[in-house]
Write a structure and sequence with these properties.
The chain is an alpha/beta fold and 231 residues long. The chain has one domain: 3-Layer(aba) Sandwich (Rossmann fold). It has helices at 16-27, 45-57, 89-92, 104-119, 141-154, 156-159, 176-185, 210-221, and strands spanning 7-11, 31-38, 61-66, 123-125, 166-168. It is globular. It starts with 6 loop residues before the first strand and ends in a 10-residue tail after the last helix.
Length: 231
């Protein structure tokens, strides 16, 4: 009897990391269900990028959940707060930046958990990174482990023993350069992605926010040029 491929819910922001994770999940033989969020972020450029990436890599379904974190604010991505620009590596390595969106990954993973239960999937992929990612508290291994434990207590499928949820974090111990190298190996077209916190209305990255600086550094360390047209 032919074995059906396993289904995986993959959180897809449209950025470099999530595009790489989507390609990794595909390379591991999963049937892909991509989940993006319109959460009140500063721009829709990343959602447009997510659609491009999903189509390029090939997913069974791509859903965008609409939630509005602007009702809470507290982040340069969801409030009238300037995005920091031109910070040094030393500055980025200390403290939690104002681009941190309160509880964002907790909220996103909860939505992914709900969809995984409906799909009968036991696998969620997320592109969190604990090295080159500005010290966000919800990108740490301890957070992922705690959420996974909670998730297995939180669903009907888990209680009935039909689901043993696993949260996959294949990038968590990689540098940005290693992530890019892996993606290139898997054929990811990074020209389709968007990483910038403050892009122009036409989608050109600013080149100076933390995310742009980390991305550009990763491409330099691979000895290749970032395909995005920085303004």
């Amino acid at each position: 009897m032919e074995t059906q491929p396993k289904k995986a819910v993959v959180l897809l922001s449209g950025g470099l990391d999530s595009a790489t994770v989507l390609a990794i999940a595909k390379s591991q033989g999963y049937e892909l269900y991509a989940l993006s969020f319109s959460y009140g972020q500063r721009h829709i450029v990343e959602l447009e990028a997510a659609s491009r990436v999903a189509a390029s890599i090939g997913v069974v379904k791509h859903r965008t959940a609409a939630i509005d974190l602007r009702v809470f604010g507290g982040s340069a991505l969801t409030d009238d707060i300037d995005v920091p620009k031109g910070r040094t590596a030393g500055e980025m390595s200390h403290g939690i930046p104002i681009t941190y969106v309160p509880a964002r990954n907790t909220i996103f993973l909860s939505f992914a958990l709900a969809w995984a239960e409906v799909l009968g999937s036991s696998d969620i992929f997320i592109g969190v990174n604990a090295l080159d990612y500005s010290g966000y508290p919800d990108c740490r291994p301890e957070f992922i482990e705690a959420f996974e434990k909670m998730a297995n207590l939180a669903t009907k499928a888990g209680v009935e023993g039909r689901q043993a949820l696993k949260i996959h974090t294949p990038l968590i111990a990689l540098t940005k350069a290693e992530i890019i190298g892996k993606g290139i190996e898997l054929g990811v077209d990074y020209g389709l992605t968007s990483s910038c916190y403050d892009p122009s209305p036409s989608g050109e990255p600013c080149g100076q926010c933390d995310s742009c600086l980390l991305r550009r550094k990763g491409f330099r360390e691979n000895g290749i040029e970032d395909p995005l047209p920085y303004r």
